[in-house]
Amino acid sequence: MSYNVFDILRELDSIVDFARAKLQWDILFFINSKGPSSVSEIAEGTNNSKKAVIDAIRKLIEKELIIKIKYDVYDLSDKGKQVLNKLNSFTSNTVPSQNDADHGNSTLSNMDNPSQNFYLLELIKISLLNNGILPIDKAYRELGISKQTLKYYLELFMQKKIFKKVNKKNFLGRNIQSAVLTSEGRKIAYRVPSLIKIRNNLFLRLLLKMTFSISYESALLKLMVFFALSSPIIIYYDGDAPIRMIGILWLYMLVFTSLLSVFAYLTMR
């Protein structure tokens, strides 16, 4: 038993040095937990500079532990999944047989699915609240991921015919490419109770329209910032008649948006 454990440890150390390649291990663990990720996301998630991450990624690619998916988005290779599976077996004090390794590889492969499912539901939700159109520039900021990562997932969902690209004209008359939810995507949405509630939530739709937002959380944040910054001005100039009228409107707006937010939240539950 100890001999097998020692062999596993020695093999792992020969692939990625435990003592001198901590960042490489951090990158492997990060991608394993988060799914396909960009350099910026890895750098932020591992608390390292982009330069250091790029150098470590280059070494991991040379070792065939990660692969470049598209743009600057990277994922674990089959070999990388095997290495992490062996490490999991070592930390669990078990020695993986061939069947265990195959099972572990399958499990690690399926670990990408939660990430895909999460982004799929989030993108569908954003689309439903925007009349079926996905605002890409807002979506990646809302989800806290890079634009490249969003493009990766979006192209993946386009291959599954959940979204499709269309050309739309902006207010200047120029053609711009947009992603829209397909009928297949809507079928998925109508199977998820929370998405059905969001689709029929008139209070939420009105709140998002008023705040130019694509999510309930961002709408609340904008309202809090607006009222927090405007309240000192209203109070300071309260003696002036025009400002007093504005203050009354401000108060009505505060009450209205507060009630609207409450109703939007209650109808989402």
Outline of the structure:
By secondary structure, the protein is mainly α.
Report on this model:
The protein folds into three domains: 2-110, Winged helix-like DNA-binding domain superfamily/Winged helix DNA-binding domain (Arc Repressor Mutant, subunit A, Orthogonal Bundle), CATH 1.10.10.10; 112-192, Winged helix-like DNA-binding domain superfamily/Winged helix DNA-binding domain (Arc Repressor Mutant, subunit A); 201-269. The strands form two sheets. The protein has a three-stranded antiparallel sheet with strand order 1-3-2. The longest helix has 28 residues, at 241-268. Helix content is 69%, strand content 10%. It is built from 14 helices and six strands. It has 269 residues and is mainly alpha-helical. The model is unreliable at 93-112 (pLDDT under 50).
List keywords for this structure.
269 residues, mainly alpha, Arc Repressor Mutant, subunit A, 3 domains, 14 helices, 10% strand
Secondary-structure blueprint of this entry?
Elements: H1 2-15, H2 22-34, E1 37-38, H3 39-46, H4 50-62, E2 66-70, E3 73-76, H5 78-91, H6 98-110, H7 112-128, E4 133-134, H8 136-143, H9 147-159, E5 163-169, E6 175-181, H10 183-189, H11 193-199, H12 202-211, H13 216-236, H14 241-268
Antiparallel strand pairs: 1-3, 2-3, 4-6, 5-6
Q: What is the typical, i.e. mean, pLDDT?
A: 79
Number of helices: 14
**Neighbour order of strands in the largest sheet:** 1-3-2
Low-confidence stretches: 93-112
